[in-house]
From TrEMBL:
Pfam families for this protein: DDE_3 (PF13358)
InterPro entries in UniProt: RNaseH-like_sf, RNaseH_sf, Tc1-like_DDE_dom
Top-level taxon of the source organism: Bacteria
Name of this chain's protein: Transposase
Segments forming domain Tc1-like transposase DDE: 5-89
Protein source organism: Catenulispora pinistramenti
């Protein structure tokens, strides 16, 4: 994508809306990025009651951990991978996740206590 702004995000939401069968609720788990909380985005979502927004807490380090995992998956498997079919891709991802859980995954200990952060 050329820009990560409200218009680009709303374009994605339009595509999602067109793809998911009518009558099916759509739950979005999002951080508080500017494109997610822009007035234009909030208005678009408010006009579509099947969209249910769940914002992650500010300073949500767990979301960063998820992003790091997807970065690892991309670097180690997807970027240079060649897959003969969608089924093979899914199988290779499943194998990667199992191996990652077995050898690389480490427990994450939450340390943020919820108190306001100091500003510089």
């Amino acid at each position: 994508m050329a820009r990560n702004n409200a218009d680009t995000f709303i374009g994605f939401l339009h595509a999602l809306d067109a793809t998911v069968p009518a009558g099916t609720d759509i739950h979005l788990v999002m951080d508080n990025g500017s494109s997610h909380v822009a007035k234009k985005t909030r208005a678009w979502l408010a006009a579509r009651p099947r969209f249910h927004v769940h914002h992650t807490p500010q300073h949500a380090s767990w979301l960063n951990q998820v992003e790091l995992f997807f970065s690892t998956l991309t670097r180690r498997l997807l970027r240079r991978g060649q897959f003969a079919s969608r089924d093979e891709l899914a199988e290779r991802i499943d194998d990667f996740v199992l191996a990652y859980d077995e050898h690389d995954a480490k427990p994450y200990r939450w340390t943020y206590d919820g108190s306001p952060l100091k500003t510089a």
